[in-house]
Amino acid sequence: MSVGPRTNWRERGACRFEDPELFFPVGEGGLSLLQIEQARAVCRRCPVLHECRAWALRNREYDGVWGGMTAQERRAATVRGLGGRGR
Ligand code: SF4
Question: Which residues are near ligand 1 (CB < 6 Å)?
Fold first, then answer.
């Protein structure tokens, strides 16, 4: 994803100095759970968590941890109607 006017929140993300691989576990179970929790810990201290989460939901980003949510959680939120495009 490129950083443009609508995504410049990324420049303030707490993950910008982290290994990007941390946010892309190979699954959502087993050993990946520890990795996911480590990624979430970074997200919890992130000043742009809400912008990031909204972007990922709006853009149907179904890979990796964004805004403290896993892909599975974002899919579920979308199904429940929490990821509408109009936000
Ligand atoms: S919420 Fe998480 S993934 Fe999103 S910018 Fe912040 S640290 Fe990165």
Answer: 13-15, 23, 42-43, 46, 48-49, 52, 66-68
Q: What is the pLDDT of residues 67-76, one digit of tens each?
A: 999 999 999 9
**Which of 38, 29, 37, 27 has the alpha carbon at shortest distance from 63?**
27
Nearest one of 77, 87, 83, 71 to 27, comparing CA atoms: 71
The answer to whether the predicted template modeling score (pTM) of the entire model surpasses 0.70 is: yes
Q: How far apart are CA 34 and CA 25, in angstroms?
A: 9
CA 79 / ligand 1 centre spacing (Å): 22
